[in-house]
Amino acid sequence: MNMEEMKEIEGVERQDSEEMNNEQEELKRIAPWMKQITIRGLVASLLIGIIYSVIVMKLNLTTGLVPNLNVSAALLAFVFIRSWTKLLQKAGIVSTPFTRQENTIIQTCAVACYSIAVGGGFGSYLLGLNRKTYEQAGIGTEGNNPWSIKEPGIGWMVGFLFVSCFVGLLALVPLRKIMIIDYKLSYPSGTATAVLINGFHTPKGDKIAKKQVHGFVNFFSLSFLWAFFQWFYAGGDKCGFAQFPTFGLKAWKNSFYFDFSMTYIGAGMICSHLVNLSLLLGAVLSWGVMWPLIGGLKGEWFPATLPESSMKSLNGYKVFISIALILGDGLYNFLKILFLIARGIHTNVKVRSLKIFSHEQKQQQIDLQRNELFVRENIPIWVACAGYTIFSIISIVVIPLMFPELKWYYIVVAYILAPSLSFCNAYGAGLTDMNMAYNYGKVALFVLAAMSGKENGVVAGLVGCGLIKSIVSISSDLMHDFKTGHLTLTSPRSMLVSQAIGTAIGSVVAPLTFSLFYKAFDVGNPDGEYKAPYALIYRNMAILGVQGFSALPHHCLQLCYGFFAFAIAANLLRDFSPKNIGKWVPLPMAMAVPFLVGAYFAIDMCVGSLVVFAWHKLNGKKADLMVPAVASGLICGDGLWLLPSSILALFKVRPPICMSFFAST
Predict the structure, then answer these.
(1) Across-strand partners of 658?
(2) Main subcellular localization, coarse class (predicted)?
């Protein structure tokens, strides 16, 4: 062993020792759980929650595809508080030190807030109740009744979110020790967030954070100014840079164009290459091949007199083939997760029984201290059980008053089953990082729609889907947060309280944000920007549950069988083929999105992927460091402009110029 290697080993050991000492010192000065929640932290959480609620609401109402922004939220929390403390420092005011615990609390609260905008059904099951979606699903379609309509309203939406979301917070609290400490579930997103936060709050991490903050601010400013500039040229339908016919007018008519959206480019930088390429493949397959071919069969497969938006026309193929892909992918992953859960529990039981007789494996001191802190700051089981019962009773009383179509006894059964479903989902998320809440919701949708009959099936299915999905999703998110808290030495009590505060804020902010979009833009227009594709998909799922396959247009069932089988086959190929082959197998769930939405956003996402790929080739270390910051800046800058542009639209202030493109004559 040469001297250089010796020095390198000594350096690594010294660094590890320093990190251990830092963490042990941190343990000694951890604030009590109540002091970890600060006023400035709540203000920062509110601001981040509002910004991200606007961003994800746009994504929800345009494509329905929302990337994981947890790491981005942690970075933004760091930016906000560090900027605030520096301002106070320059003003000569002494402020409380910014700790990793406070950073974690802000991130948790902000994520809980904007998660309501992601999963509250504003682009899916709740919006599926409105009149426009009812009309798109086909007036006169069996099961699609005129009385199965409830127009969006801030009041009832806030009430629904409050009674449905808080139940999920307490469903798995008694099992937190089992899942985090005993089973040692990894929760990759929670772990990644913790690693980032821990990295910020070290001497070395401070230097890295400065670079990330600088990159974030630069690209945030660039994105905001670009969005502002684009606005001036969007003074009419299909005007502006967002309608630029990059690949020619014929391609543009089939939605193949680059629309200069910094949000989608940023999202593409965050999403994996496989997701982005799957989107592009789905776009090419649908808008490049299938829809032109099926459209050419007008008069043979469906009446030529029907408008394209009719569910018995081309739009029916778009919707139901998307559903087939989503259901095939969802069913496979649902069964796969159940298998992994069963195997994981069996393995853990065996390992734990062996550990009773063997003391060979010893945890490091810091892990023991983390565990001790996590267990010491316990949340009494009676509090969780009493809270779950109280919130369930409130929900059982209130929801049938809002939606008489959903009978109270269905809700009782749902809340009895919810903890076990939540456990399955949270355990699966801990193993695979996949939150399968939507699939549990879809199962509930089909079951309730079928059981409630043709009169009430659509509303009962959509609302029941929302109930199950909310409980299962929020309880899984809480486990991710507990994992982050465990690794950042943050009290579980403060985590639960911050999650509750974030949920309460989100239950108000999300409906207000949605209302802003709903009033300012033409939400649900299949030819507009805000297509809200999943609203129509979910309503048609409910109709399918009520009516059966007679809801499908001609030859659509055979195509659905084919794509359902393709989704299963693609997943099997990915899981059972060698890694060098499996990594190239497309994701059916991602492929399904452009089938209904269009190809333009897939192109944007692939541009983001291309940027990341090129950056890694040029400078891999810098790319690893800066990609999250740059992507967050692009998303936040573009997203922030949505607020003033929405307000301008509400006041009927239109852009002064319409930049449009036509074929030369």
Answers:
(1) 234
(2) membrane
